[in-house]
Amino acid sequence: MPEKQCVPSSTYVFKDDDLPYEEEILRNPYSVKHWSRYIDYLKTSKSPNLNIVFERALKELPGSYKLWYQYLCHRRKQLKTRRIDDPLYDDVNNAYERALVFMHKMPRIWMDYCLLMTEQSLITRTRHVFDRALRALPITQHHRIWPLYLDFVKSHDIPETAVRVFRRYLKLAPEDTEDYIEYLILIGRLDEAALKLAHIVNQDDFVSKHGKSNHQLWNELCDLISKNPMRIKSLNVDAIIRGGLRRYTDQLGPLWNSLADYYIRSGLFERARDIYEEAIQTVTTVRDFGQVFDAYAQFEELSLKKRMELAESKPTDDDDIDIELKLARFEDLMERRLLLLNSVLLRQNPHNVQEWHKRVKLYEGQPHEIINTYTEAVQTVQPQLAVGKLHTLWVEFAKFYEVNDQLQDARVVFEKATHVAYMKPEDLASVWCEWAEMEIRHGNCIDALKLMHRATAMPSRKVAYHDDAETVQMRLYKSLKVWSMYADLEESFGTFQTCKAVYDKIIDLKIATPQIIINYGLFLEENNYFEEAFRAYEKGVSLFHWPNVYDIWNTYLTKFLNRYGGSKLERTRDLFEQCLEKCPAKYAKALYLLYAKLEEEHGLSRHAMTVYERATNAVLPEEKFEMFNIYITKAAGIHGVPKTREIYEKAIEVLDDEKTREMCLRFAEMETKLGEIDRARAIYAHCSQICDPRVTANFWQVWKEFEVRHGNEDTVREMLRIKRSVGAMYNTHVDMMTAQIINSTTTNQDAPDAMTLLDSRAAPIEPTQTSALKRNISFVRGVTEGGTTKDGQVINPDELQIDMDDDDDDDDAEAEDDEELPIEKQTIPSKVFGGLKLPEPQENTEEN
After folding, report:
1. Which of 311, 643, 649, 721 could form a disulfide with 639 if both were Cys (CB 3.0 to 4.6 A apart)?
2. SS3 category, 15
3. Residue 763 pLDDT > 80, yes or no?
4. Nearest to residue 681, comparing CAs of 658, 663, 704?
5. Domain assignments of the chain as residue spans, ordered by start
């Protein structure tokens, strides 16, 4: 280049401080380090010679990228406060041009130059710079230039230039097609935008840089072409949207609406209406149907509204006709909604029986449509795929003809229904039963019997009822439903022999139920064939096991007793023994009571007592107490009250604690009434071992009242001693656990000891303090307190004094109590330590 272009016009101002750097430059003119040190010094000192030194350095070292980059950056900083039309911009542009002579492979230099040119708004010149940069740089560096180039062309109103630049750029980066489409939409070139969008939608390997799925791109395309039908001429909109319908079956509603919207905006309203009708007749989901139907209804409503507004503004002769037509269309659409929705559900699953029934109800009052619907339903639904009971369609079809007095047509329907390959024999049995019931309703009882005879006819070979490999027609002969109805019809309209033959056949086929056996027996009994009835019951007993056989045994024994009473006592006993041999405890009570009643009325009393005794062992544990009460009552009535002692003793051994207490109280009361005071006292002592004084205050109150009436000071003292001993026995287990629980939950370190706390809360238990026991659990002290007297006698502050002359004052008797024996040395009769030991009853109870 000429010399005048390399040296700035400003003159060099030499200073004394520059001398060392100048000397180094003279000695090392080709050293970048020395030039950089000189330049850094000048930057620090803000010398006006900086540009001149840069130019001198670049003249010596024109290939130094470091020097060129620093120089250009420094020159750009000088432009920050200058206007765009300042001549200094031309100097900087010239510096960049000179730098690119040597630095044309450096993308950073090109990028800064392009940005500088973009700031100057020199469109053509800037475009040329960008093009030169793309030509000069290798292809691997183009991605640094193109974003600047695209920003430049988009920032100016040069759409044709921008489109051409974008087209060039997409050859390098086709993944940025979406940005091009957005720009085309922005500048209004919708036709080309639709073409590019359709192109990327059809590319299976296209990956959106914005994370959009192919389906989202399809929706954008449909929205674009449907909302701008007049501006898009290069695409077949109908074909594109229908292609989307075939491709995206889970979004049919929006696509159908887009296609209809395209024709609406195109002014083709009848074509849009056809599209809506096609859509609601083809969609298969309720969601898509709802979207299309709402859009269709809105379209019809708006069409009617616009026509009415037009008629008001510009009335013509045809206004009324057009308005009535559009109104009729809108009303017809709204009336068809439920029917159209039902069609959608049937398209989802044409084998849904319930939906076919709903469709028939929607056609109420239209017999031809009902017949066509039933015909279509029975032809469409396949038994293997049916959801619901297929036979109900055939039955309702036949009933429709029956209601309209077309019995012959109904019979034809039933006849066809009997040949359908149902999945279960019960379905075919229901068809036969419904056919027979129809004949009965119209008085054709003989025909109904013939139908049942046909239904129960034996096939050519025997097959298993649950063999799915065989047809239901082959397995129908073992259907209990058909046989049951056959038996009912024979019982009502047939002869005794034919009905008996039906019941016998049911039993022979081994399909009878306990109810069938009972019905058979009742039928024979009604016809006075009592022994035949009993033989039927015997067959039923042999067919079933417990617990299914309980109803048969109960009916059999009841009928047998009613028939013969005690005339065939041995036979009746054999029946009861046979019944009770394997009878579960759950059903034993009623049968034993029936057996005992037989022995009481017709047998021997000792046999009855034996039965009651067996019953107490055979029934459920929760029923034993009730059974013992019945046993005791019967024994007292037959043999007298003294004979019940053994029963009481046995009951006390086998019952649980709660029932044992009640039984002991009753036993003691009975002994008291008999004058056996010692025996009653022994019973109370025995029962006391399972009576915690804190819980069973009632027992101790009853014993106290007994001792007050029948005892003396010694017996009362013994009773109180036993009470304290039992309380101590329960406290040994309960108090320690309660103390541990309280101690573990105590968080205050200064709180008193747990056992001390329990003692402080304890209160002496009086028999009359039943209500207090319900509120607070009081503990009887297990140790003696209070010191001793002078003669060494222990003083117990909890002792009760009992005055025999006054029932309400118990303190005196307690004060004279002897020393307590240790618990381990007491010899109180107990369920724990042995059975109930009672004194022998006195012979003369009246004297006692």
Report:
1. 643
2. coil
3. no
4. 704
5. 512-553, 565-639, 690-743+754-825
Residue 803 phi/psi, 5-degree rounding, is: -105, 120
Terminal-to-terminal C-alpha distance of the chain: 155
> In degrees rounded to 5, what are phi and psi of residue 794?
-75, 135
Residue with tokens 């019931």: 437
Tens of pLDDT, residues 572-602: 778 888 888 888 888 888 888 888 887 777 7
- How do residues 782-825 score in pLDDT, each as one tens digit? 333 333 343 444 444 444 444 444 444 444 434 334 333 333 33
Burial of 518 (0-12, 13-18, 19+ CB in 10 A): buried
Residues 798, 813: contact at Cβ < 8 Å?
no
Contact at 8 Å (CB) between 341 and 286? yes
pLDDT of 645-684, one tens digit each?
888 888 888 888 788 888 888 888 888 888 888 888 888 8
The angle, 0 to 180 degrees and rounded to 10, between the axes of the packed helices 550-564 and 569-580 is: 170
Alpha helices for 13-138 (secondary structure H): 19-27, 32-45, 50-60, 65-77, 88-103, 107-119, 123-136
How far apart, in whole angstroms, are the C-alpha atoms of residue 405 and residue 398?
11
DSSP-based three-state secondary structure for 317: coil
Burial annotation 709-747 (CB, 10 A radius, 16+ → b, else e): eebeeebbbbbbbbbbbbbbbbbeeebeebbeeeeeeee
Residue 581 has what DSSP assignment? T
The full length of the chain comes to: 848
Which region among 5-19, 263-277, 401-415 has the lowest average model confidence (pLDDT)?
5-19
Q: How far, CA to CA in Å, does 617 sit from each of 139, 282, 545, 574, 844?
A: 103, 74, 22, 20, 34
Measured between alpha carbons, how far is 164 from 653 in angstroms, rounded to an integer?
Answer: 110
DSSP SS3 for 803 = strand
What pTM was estimated for this model as a whole?
0.62
* pLDDT at residue 754 in the model: 46
Look at residue 771 and tell me whether its pLDDT is greater than 60. Answer: no
Pull the structure tokens for residue 733: 């287990």
Backbone φ, ψ for residue 316 (5° rounding):
-135, 175
With a CB cutoff of 8 Å and minimum separation 6, the contacts of 597 are none
Instruction: Please work out, in degrees rounded to the nearest 5, the angle formed at the alpha carbon of residue 494 by the alpha carbons of 491 and 496.
Output: 70
- CA neighbor of 90 nearest in space, from 70, 66, 52, 116: 116
CA distance 572 to 566: 8
Q: Which residues contact 526 (CB under 8 A, 6 or more apart)?
A: none
3-state secondary structure of 789: coil
Q: Please state, in angstroms and as integers, the Cα–Cα distance from residue 45 to each residue in 49, 81, 299, 424, following that order.
A: 10, 21, 79, 106
DSSP 788: B
Local confidence band at 131 (pLDDT 50, 70, 90 cut-offs): very high
